[in-house]
Design goal:
binds FE2/S2 (inorganic) cluster, single chain, Naphthalene 1,2-dioxygenase Alpha Subunit, Chain A, domain 1, binds fe (ii) ion, Rieske Iron-sulfur Protein, alpha+beta, 2 domains, 344 residues, 6 helices
Length: 344
């Protein structure tokens, strides 16, 4: 069962063009495109005439024409033209899903009723500006949503799974602080490393040499939104007492966790930085590094899922580093129970 009454990332903004695409989200086939007015549209990927995927159609102006018999739908899902007859049966309507574009990402509401805008994650850093450069990507993982939550809430795995890019011994060695806001449904995990080696991911992009202070502050807003606030500075130079921190380098590493099916998940990512903003070689370097990091996670989670598929009984022994992940599971369980209660 999926938690539906929440926003999820559906696509990268750059993916949506006037060539419709299909993506499976929460077990449903969704067709998405950008019409010629620039608006993004999502509809159920099934033509109400004979069920052909609407994602195989084409965009004409602000409308989508089915690729099978040419029935035409507007952005509200209403059929507005049928070849060869004037009368359009009112049942020729296709469900649409609200989409909201926020910088690099497009969020979707798969829930019932009106979308709850108060639940849309507030993330100004997703939007590129004069002060921020943003790059983004997405990976499909053959693993269930919960495995990705576990992975992201415990970054001690960087030391082992991502050695050579972002992982250094100190990540796993440094204790974490965990804060859980049950009412706001938010999990925060802090790891502040002092006087440590700057890993290549940051050394090659910031120019920092010598020991650094490296902070990893996670904010997870279940189910689908995750933000890692990364701060790097020469060691011994914390933010100033007035809160300014211009001598440090900041990167927000976003993940959008979107279940595709019960055993597959979309892993959207975006990196937003406040340094080397104009430097496209830094974009390219980070995109390459991040794609490799994500692939390492994809490989690990795929293996875990394969073991689960074999019916392997996972025994879990949790330790201190698992506190963030355990809190996340608790909140996800609560959200699931809440939806079950309201839907029954
Ligand atoms: S299936 Fe779409 S028009 Fe026939
Ligand atoms: Fe990872």
């Amino acid at each position: 069962m999926f938690i539906r009454q929440r926003w999820y990332v559906a696509a990268l903004a750059a993916e949506l063009t006037d060539r419709p695409m299909e993506r499976t989200i929460l077990g449903e086939h969704v067709a998405m495109y950008r019409n010629h007015a620039g608006a993004v549209v999502a509809l159920r990927d099934t033509c109400p005439h004979r069920g052909y995927p609407l994602s195989r159609g084409r965009v004409v102006g602000e409308r989508l024409v089915c690729g099978y018999h040419g029935f035409t739908f507007d952005a509200t899902g209403t059929c507005v033209a049928v070849p060869g007859q004037d009368r359009i049966p009112s049942r020729l309507h296709v469900r649409t899903y609200p989409l909201i574009e926020r910088g690099a990402w497009v969020f979707i509401w798969m829930g019932a009723g009106e979308p709850d805008l108060a639940r849309l994650p507030d993330a100004p850093w997703l939007e590129p500006s004069d002060e921020r450069a943003v790059i983004a990507g997405v990976a499909a993982i053959e693993a269930n949503f919960g495995l990705l939550v576990d992975n992201l809430l415990d970054l001690s795995h960087e030391t082992f799974l991502h050695a050579g890019s972002i992982g250094t011994p100190e990540v796993a060695e440094t204790p974490i602080e965990v804060e859980v806001d049950e009412a706001a449904r938010r999990v925060e995990v802090y790891r502040h490393m002092t006087g440590v080696v700057c890993p290549p991911f940051y050394a090659n992009t910031t120019g920092l040499e010598g020991p650094v202070d490296r902070w990893q502050d996670i904010e997870y807003r279940p189910p689908g939104f995750y933000q890692l606030n990364s701060r790097l500075a020469p060691t011994g130079r914390p933010p100033l007492s007035d809160g300014s921190d211009d001598h440090a380098f900041h990167m927000k590493i976003f993940y959008g966790l979107t279940p595709a099916t019960e055993r597959t998940v979309w892993d959207f990512w975006a990196l937003s930085r406040d340094f080397a903003v104009e430097d496209r070689t830094v974009d390219d370097f980070l995109a390459k590094m991040q794609a490799a990091v994500v692939q390492e996670d994809v490989d690990a989670l795929t293996v875990l899922q394969a073991r689960l598929d074999e019916g392997y009984e996972a025994t879990e022994v949790s330790i201190k580093i698992d506190r963030g992940g355990l809190a996340a599971r608790r909140i996800l369980d609560e959200m699931t129970r809440e939806e079950l209660a309201t839907s029954s």
